[in-house]
Amino acid sequence: MRVANLNDSMKKIGSLKDYQGDDQIITSYDLQESIKQEPPLKVFNSKIPSLDKAIEGLNQGSLLLLVGRENQERHSLLKA
Questions:
Q1: Which domain holds residue 63?
Q2: Per-residue pLDDT tens listing for the chain (80 residues)
Q3: Residue 68, CA distances (Å) to 63, 72, 74, 76 in order
């Protein structure tokens, strides 16, 4: 009985190789090629050089959270 289950599992795995749906399993090489074909994202600078260097700029559609303790000049940083 275990051999039959193993054979069924192997058939199911084999059928995934040719699957072309949205949740298709792909290799990292295929993903890399797909990403290369996408247009580059727009990157915006914060005008704070050390921040831009650390986060490589602000990408369009990104959410940036600025956190810190009280009286640590977060508000002043956002005004800059």
A1: 2-79
A2: 566 677 787 777 777 777 788 888 888 998 899 889 988 878 888 788 888 888 888 887 777 777 777 776 766 666 65
A3: 16, 6, 7, 12
